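Supplementary Methods, section 5.1.

A reviewer requested that the exact input to the structure prediction be made available. We therefore reproduce it here, unchanged from the version used in the analyses.
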Amino acid sequence: MANARSILPHFDVFSAPGVNVPPGTPTQAAAGAGALGKSRFFALSPVMAAVKGLGADDVVVPGVAVAVPSQRMGAGDIAWTMAILGVAGALCYQAGKAIAPSRQDATTWGWIGVPVGLFTGVLGLGVMGVVANQKKGG
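The structure derived from this sequence is encoded token-by-token as follows.
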């Protein structure tokens, strides 16, 4: 019985059946309840929202195959992403300066606010505010 072959196709029980759909394609599964949209995700982390989906391979989505044109990121998309991150970084710098517990520490807190704001969003800047208030004694 060691040489017996099955007439059934080989399949992996741990992978979901489906069809390949290019990344960035709006699907019913991707728009499920509880999923964070890119704009809401931006408030939590502007960097993660900007790079979300970059380099993603085709995803497998259960359902009927749909012919969808492939969407590739071009130089214009990258330029807009960098511009948005630059503006967000400048705003995070200003927020860090405003949060600083003293005028002497304003520049330092401003530069600390840039990565904190870009990577953790409003939550990280809120934590910076709590720390600054503790240092102020208030």
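The beta strands are 19-21, 59-61. These observations are discussed further in the main text.
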